[in-house]
């Protein structure tokens, strides 16, 4: 997953990423919570973070639940899962239009040093010679290195954020809902 921070001025920061294969849904959830805890300690607001996920997370697992249901149970109300928009061409166009370089506009996209790999993969993508509106697919090697998974996550995050706006619900700090959220978000809180 890729962690974006977006300012009120609409500057986008890619601040972190985690790329591990072979994890169970609960392990993915714990990895996300660890990242949220770390950035909360750095002073970022990490309450009810939108997480844009691939469509496969909503496939049923042979019973009535989906991996999205299972992941949401681990994350509780620290994050909201949103199915990512998968239109490759629209995503590439949105990235180009949103972040294109021009003399009239200051840059709006920034990468933290620890997200340098996301930048490198994104920068390395080449136009598909058979379809100039798309990028060429890059597969990972047999050890899972390389490939375009980070770019896929980046473009899905950008496009989905642009096409499915997410507003953080403001909860009155004097309400019972606020108190319940505080209890649920504390380590060792109610399950």
Describe the structure in your own words.
The chain has 191 residues and is α/β, with parallel strands linked by helices. The chain is 38% helix and 16% strand. The chain contains 6 helices and 7 strands; from the N terminus they run ββαβαβαβαββαα. It has helices spanning 25-41, 67-75, 88-99, 116-124, 149-163, 176-185, and strands at 2-6, 12-17, 49-53, 79-83, 109-111, 127-128, 131-135. The strands form 3 sheets. It has a 3-stranded mixed β-sheet, covered by helices on one side. It has a two-stranded parallel ribbon with strand order 3-4. Strand 6 and strand 7 form a beta hairpin. Helix 3 packs across helix 5 (149-163). The relative contact order is 0.16. The model is unreliable at 186-191 (pLDDT under 50).
Number of E strands: 7
Question: Residue ranges: pLDDT <50 for 5 or more in a row?
Answer: 186-191
Question: Which sequence of strands runs across the widest sheet?
Answer: 1-2-5
Q: Which structural category fits the helices and strands?
A: alpha/beta
How many strands, which pairing sense, and closed or not: the largest β-sheet? 3 strands, mixed
End-to-end distance: 25 Å
Shape: globular
Helix content: 25-40%
Tell me the strand percentage band: 15-25%
Radius of gyration: 18 Å
Question: How does the SSE layout of this entry go?
Answer:
Elements lengths: L1 E5 L5 E6 L7 H17 L7 E5 L13 H9 L3 E5 L4 H12 L9 E3 L4 H9 L2 E2 L2 E5 L13 H15 L12 H10 L6
Key attributes of the depicted protein:
191 residues, alpha/beta, three-stranded mixed sheet, two-stranded parallel sheet, 6 helices, 38% helix, disordered C terminus
């Amino acid at each position: 997953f890729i962690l974006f921070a977006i300012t009120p001025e609409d500057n986008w920061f890619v601040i972190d990423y985690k790329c591990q294969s072979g994890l169970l849904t609960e392990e993915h959830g714990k990895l996300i919570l660890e990242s949220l805890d770390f950035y909360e300690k750095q002073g970022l607001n990490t309450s009810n973070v939108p997480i844009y996920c691939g469509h496969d997370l909503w496939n049923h697992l042979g019973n009535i639940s989906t991996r999205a249901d299972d992941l949401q149970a681990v994350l509780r109300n620290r994050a909201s899962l949103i199915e990512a928009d998968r239109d490759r061409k629209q995503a590439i166009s949105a990235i180009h239009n949103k972040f294109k370089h021009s003399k009239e506009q200051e840059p709006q996209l920034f990468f933290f040093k620890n997200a340098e790999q996301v930048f490198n993969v994104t920068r390395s993508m080449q136009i598909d010679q058979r379809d100039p509106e798309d990028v060429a697919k890059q597969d990972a090697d047999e050890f899972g290195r390389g490939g375009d998974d980070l770019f896929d996550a980046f473009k899905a995050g950008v496009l989905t954020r642009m096409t499915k706006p997410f507003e953080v619900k403001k909860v009155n700090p004097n309400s019972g809902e606020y108190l319940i959220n505080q209890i649920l978000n504390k380590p060792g809180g109610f399950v």
